[in-house]
Design brief:
Elements: H1 9-20, H2 26-45, E1 52-59, E2 65-71, H3 78-85, H4 112-116, E3 120-128, E4 137-142, E5 147-151, E6 162-169, H5 179-190, E7 196-202, E8 208-212, H6 227-242, E9 249-254, E10 259-265, E11 277-281, E12 284-290, E13 301-307, H7 323-344, H8 349-366, H9 370-379, E14 381-382, E15 389-390, H10 391-396, E16 400-403, H11 406-418, E17 423-425, H12 431-439, E18 446-448, H13 451-457, H14 463-480, E19 485-490, E20 499-503, H15 508-519, H16 522-532, E21 540-545, H17 549-556, H18 561-577, H19 584-603
Parallel strand pairs: 1-7, 11-13, 16-17, 16-18, 19-21
Antiparallel strand pairs: 1-2, 2-6, 3-4, 3-6, 4-5, 7-8, 9-10, 10-13, 11-12, 14-15, 20-21
Bound molecules: adenosine-5'-triphosphate.
Residues 30, 34-35, 38, 71, 73-76, 84-85, 91-93, 107-113, 163, 165 line the site of adenosine-5'-triphosphate (ATP).
Length: 616
């Protein structure tokens, strides 16, 4: 003879609460959802039937907390109660006979009732089925896995069609049935349900009043006299729901997939990857922190989405990651992009605020889409050596040259500016990738700055100056070799910058020198050799500025301790100017060099600092 599996109820409840649900609070969602499904099933049989759900907390004779959820739904006969309520995994909503119109139901797994045992010692159903002539019944189930069903001899008026589920709290879970907790949870899960759901709550003066939990219509579907009235109402809804006043909103609508909603634009910048959207399934909250319904780059919004078609996981707290979800995510992402393309190109206060606040998100978005990339190039200001400019404006002037690190940008910005060369700082997150993508678009000439670019724009000093400084430069190269740094002389604006440091990791400078040497007349050979004699390719080059009085004075000074200290000071301030920061040995070297310079200056005070002779 074949036997049936035995199920240990407390083991099942433990399994659900620890491994399936995020916590005991979901018990209320399951109860409300069963009531909603029952009301939906009755409406399918009789569209004129009442459809209300009422919640009421209290306590029993022994003082244990209780909660009643009463619905005017389809109800249960004694046989159905025995079969459906006491069989784990059995659901009327998958049944071809009982589940007429089943696509309308939220429940489907037949395990939701078990969630009530996470907080209840006992669950009691008092129900009258909508079937003609049905006798009211009471089903009592206990946490130890036992249950009773009794038929009641009550009149229709005493027990109308529908079901009242009454939970008696477990001693350690009474707080889950407290009035304010139930009210908060009911609002969280059920506020968008298309039914009249109300709860009895105490008000000042000791009386109880029925408070409606549900909003009359999906907030984004309500008709308003004007667009601005609608925007205001949606902003208020956002404040109630998310606790922030949005910069604006984006309507989301995918009728083919039964998906609609609204994405609110956050008033502050947020870090990428923090998608926390509210997802409703047939208008019952599924998740308040979903990152699946919109693409990752839409982290500058918080969306509220309702769906008829997406599938929940069994915990009903996540979306099933299937093809439909993938399609919905992509299509909703397209709607966000379309909004950005339409709104941000036109100058408006909203466009300005969104660009200012969410430029990072827009950069992330531009990486995924070439239309967005060209939008970003037209509207987002980037840091350039000529102040903030859009990439399109930079490109208008010719080739777009950029540095891929902020350090490199700082190293060259002042000098580039003075030579009229516009350099874009692409050192911030996403920017170098953006420029690389832009380079692949037709009509764009984009290139990373090489030190050859700068060496080219820095003017050569006159031949006499080269000759005069050759010895000092050679000494300087000897001193800087300790820092793996080369030294050259150029003449450039601004004269207030005595020296700049170029990073030359790929040896561009070396190639540059080779090229110059091959093109130079004989007269230059010796000079250039004095730079290039050492075959070791230095990683950096200190470019001394022949227009700077400081650099000129140094090059005119005799070699020795003071020359070395002056050169090291120039080198280390160029390192700092490049935004590299000093290592501890370098700080010590700077301090030593300044000590030498100060010492020399104090030992031989210049005539101008001498006090005037009192006799004269
Ligand atoms: N308020 C109610 N009115 C009428 N029938 C109910 C009610 N609550 C539960 N039932 C019946 O009990 C069955 C089991 O409910 P349960 O919540 O365990 O599963 P479900 O709602 O079918 O699926 P899910 O696990 O997805 O919630 C339901 O299918 C339904 O037939």
């Amino acid at each position: 003879m074949s036997e049936r599996f035995q199920v240990d109820l407390s083991g099942m409840v433990d399994l659900l609460s620890r491994h399936l649900y995020s916590g005991p609070q979901v018990y209320l969602r399951e109860l409300i959802q069963n009531a909603v499904d029952a009301v939906t099933a009755r409406a399918a049989l009789d569209p004129a039937a009442p459809s209300t759900i009422r919640l009421r907390t209290g306590s029993d004779a022994a003082g244990a907390a209780t909660l009643e959820v009463a619905d005017t739904g389809v109800g249960l006969t004694a046989d159905e109660a025995t079969e459906l309520l006491a069989t784990i995994g059995r659901s009327s909503k998958r049944d071809s006979v009982l589940g007429a119109g089943r696509a309308e139901f939220i429940g489907q797994f037949g395990i939701g009732m078990l969630a009530a045992f996470m907080v209840a010692e006992q669950i009691e159903f008092t129900s009258r089925s909508a079937k003609p002539g049905a006798v009211p019944i009471r089903w009592e189930g206990r946490a130890d896995g036992t249950f009773d069903v009794t038929e009641l001899a009550h009149t229709d008026a005493e027990i109308p069609v529908g079901t009242t589920v009454r939970l008696t709290a477990r001693r350690d879970a009474a707080h889950w049935l407290a009035n304010e907790t139930v009210l908060e949870l009911a609002r969280e899960y059920g506020s968008l349900l298309p039914f009249d759901v109300a709860m009895l709550v105490p008000v000042d003066g000791g009386t109880d009043v029925w408070r409606r939990i549900t909003e009359p219509e999906l907030p984004w579907r309500i008709a308003y006299p004007s667009g601005s009235a609608r925007s205001r109402a949606l902003a208020e809804y956002c404040e109630r729901t998310f606790g922030f006043t949005p910069l604006g909103h984006i309507d989301l609508d995918l009728p083919v997939a039964g998906v609609s909603g609204v994405a609110f634009i956050l008033p502050q910048a947020v870090t990428p990857g923090s998608g926390q959207h509210r997802v409703y399934m047939k208008r019952m909250l599924l998740s308040s922190r979903s990152d699946r319904v919109l693409p990752e780059w839409s982290f500058f919004t918080r969306a509220v989405i309702d769906s008829d078609t997406l599938s929940p996981t069994a915990s009903r707290e996540q979306l099933h990651d299937d093809e439909i979800l993938l399609g919905v995510r992509e299509a909703l992402g397209e709607q966000v992009k379309r909004w950005a393309l339409d709104t941000l190109r036109q100058p408006s206060q909203l466009a300005r605020k969104v660009l200012e606040t969410h430029h990072l998100a827009l950069r992330a978005l531009a990486l995924t889409d070439s239309a967005m990339l060209s939008l970003v190039s037209e509207v987002l200001p980037f840091e350039t050596s000529d102040g903030p400019m859009t990439l399109a404006a930079v490109a208008e002037q010719g080739e777009l040259v950029y540095t891929s690190t902020t350090e490199a940008f700082h190293r060259v910005a002042a000098v580039a500016r003075a030579q009229g060369l516009v350099v874009v700082n692409a050192g911030y997150v996403y920017d170098a990738d953006l420029l690389a993508k832009l380079a692949a678009l037709p009509g764009w000439r984009v290139r990373e700055l090489s030190s050859a670019d700068l060496v080219q724009v820095l003017g050569m000093p006159g031949i006499e100056r080269e000759m005069a400084a050759a010895g000092a430069l050679s000494t300087a190269r000897g001193v800087l070799a300790e820092a793996d740094c080369d030294a050259i002389l150029r003449s450039f604006e601004p004269e207030s910058v005595p020296a700049v440091l170029l990073r030359d990791s790929e040896g561009e400078h070396r190639r540059d020198l080779d090229r110059e040497r091959s093109e130079a007349p004989d007269l230059w050979d010796g000079l250039l050799d004095s730079f290039a004699g050492d075959t070791h390719v230095r990683t950096r080059t200190l470019v001394l500025n022949d227009r700077s009085p400081v650099a000129r004075r140094l090059l005119a000074a005799p070699g020795g301790e003071i020359f070395d200290a002056g050169l090291r000071s120039l080198y280390l301030s160029a390192v700092m100017l490049a935004g590299e920061g000093l290592r501890s040995a370098e700080s010590a070297a700077l301090s030593d060099s300044l000590g030498v310079l100060l010492g020399a200056a104090l030992e031989s005070p210049s005539p101008s600092t001498e006090l005037p002779n009192s006799d004269s």
